[in-house]
Design brief:
18 strands, 9 helices, alpha+beta
Length: 350
C-alpha cells in the first residue's frame, strides 16, 4: 500500500514552498521597482551626524577667522604675526601663563655667548618666546615677518645658539613668519616639521605629542649624544675657521684607507656633552708618532687592502686638536643618527 501520508506531506511542502518563493520574489520585485523603499532608515540621522562633525571640525580650525591674504599686505609685520598667529598657536599647544606652564617674552641672557674650545660665539638675537614647564625651559620660538625666510641659515644659527646656551638648554627651537612654522631639534640637521600655517590643523595633534607640556621632555634620542660637528655648523662656523679643542680622549683609531684616519670622542662635560668624529690625513697622522710611539705607529700603517681597520689604544691619550669644518660637507647617516665629521688640521702640543 502506498504511503499516502508521505505523499500528502510532499504535496503540502511543494505548495508552501512555491507560495513562499513567489511571495519573496514579489516583494523583492516591488522593492526593486520602488527605489525609495531601499533607502536605509538611518540615512537621515547619518547625514545629521556628518554635518555635526563637519561643523565641529570647522569650529575647531585654529585660524578659521584669519584671512591669510593679509600676509601679502606690507603693513602686516612681525608684530602682527605674533599677535594674530603665533599667540593662538602657542596657546593651542598647551602653553599659557597659568598652571605649570609659562610663556616668557624676550628672555635675555646673563652671558650672551657660547664657548667652543678656545673660541666664543656671540648670541646676538633673543627669541620672542621661551616656553617653560614648571619653570624649566622647554622650547623656544622666534617670530619673523611674512617677507622673511625662516629657512635662512642666519636665522637658524641665531635660534640654535640661544637654544643650546647653558642658561637655556632646550631640545627644540622653532621659527614662524606667519606663512610657515618650522620646528627643529638641536641634534638634527633638517627640520622635524616645515608646515604651512594654512594646513596647521593637520599637524596640531602631532605637534602636541612632540612639544606639548607633558611630552616636550620625553626625547626619544636622549640616550644618544648630540653631534659636535653639527653643533659647530649650526653655530655658524665656516670651513675657513680654525678651532682649538683640548683634552680629547679617543679609545681607538679607525683606518679607512691609506690616507683617511678617524676617531670619535666625547667633548664637553656631563651637562653639555657632545660626541665628535674627527677625520685626518696620513700627513697629520705622522704627528702622532711622538704621542703613541713608533711601534704603534707602524701598526697603524698596515695596509687596509680594502678593509676598515680598527686600532685600539693601549693607554689614555690627551690630545689637543686644531680642527675645522670640512670644505665639502659630508653628512654620515646610520640607522640611529646623523653626524658631520670634523677635519683635524694639526695635533697641538701645549
Amino acid at each position: 500500500m502506498p504511503n499516502r501520508r508521505l505523499d500528502q506531506w510532499r504535496v503540502k511542502w511543494l505548495i508552501e514552498h512555491s507560495t513562499s518563493h513567489q511571495l519573496l520574489w514579489y516583494i523583492d520585485s516591488f522593492v526593486l521597482r520602488n527605489p525609495p523603499l531601499r533607502q536605509s532608515p538611518n540615512r537621515y540621522s547619518s547625514l545629521l551626524t556628518s554635518l555635526h562633525l563637519l561643523r565641529k571640525e570647522m569650529e575647531d580650525k585654529l585660524f578659521k577667522d584669519f584671512n591669510f591674504s593679509l600676509l601679502d599686505d606690507p603693513r602686516f609685520k612681525e608684530e602682527s604675526v605674533r599677535e594674530e598667529l603665533i599667540a593662538p598657536l602657542i596657546k593651542d599647544l598647551g602653553y599659557t601663563n597659568s598652571g605649570n606652564t609659562q610663556v616668557i617674552r624676550n628672555h635675555g641672557l646673563k652671558h650672551p655667548f657660547v664657548s667652543i674650545g678656545s673660541s666664543r660665539k656671540s648670541v646676538t638675537v633673543i627669541p620672542d618666546y621661551l616656553m617653560q614647564v614648571t619653570e624649566k625651559p622647554a622650547w623656544i620660538l622666534e617670530a619673523k615677518s611674512p617677507i622673511e625666510s625662516i629657512t635662512d641659515t642666519k636665522h637658524i644659527e641665531q635660534a640654535y645658539s640661544y637654544a643650546i646656551h647653558p642658561e637655556i638648554r632646550v631640545n627644540y627651537f622653532a621659527l614662524c613668519n606667519g606663512r610657515h612654522f618650522v620646528l627643529y631639534n638641536i641634534s638634527r640637521p633638517k627640520p622635524l616639521f616645515d608646515i604651512s600655517l594654512r594646513a596647521i590643523d593637520l599637524y596640531r595633534s602631532m605637534l602636541k605629542e612632540l612639544i606639548g607640556p607633558s611630552k616636550v621632555f620625553v626625547y626619544p634620542d636622549e640616550k644618544l649624544s648630540k653631534d659636535f660637528g653639527l653643533h659647530i655648523k649650526r653655530l655658524g662656523f665656516k670651513s675657513s675657521d680654525s678651532l682649538l679643542i683640548i683634552d680629547v680622549n679617543p679609545l681607538f683609531i679607525i683606518k679607512y684607507n691609506d690616507d683617511l684616519f678617524s676617531f670619535s670622542a666625547s667633548i664637553g662635560d656631563e651637562d653639555t656633552a657632545y660626541l665628535g668624529t674627527f677625520d685626518f690625513s696620513l700627513e697629520v697622522a705622522k704627528q702622532l708618532i711622538p704621542i703613541i710611539g713608533k711601534a704603534s705607529f707602524i701598526q697603524l700603517m698596515q695596509p687596509t687592502n680594502g678593509r676598515q681597520l680598527q686600532f685600539n689604544l693601549d693607554r689614555k691619550l690627551n690630545l689637543n686638536l686644531k680642527i675645522s669644518l670640512p670644505e665639502k660637507e659630508n653628512l654620515v647617516e646610520n640607522d640611529r643618527e646623523i653626524y658631520l665629521p670634523l677635519l683635524i688640521k694639526k695635533f697641538i702640543f701645549l
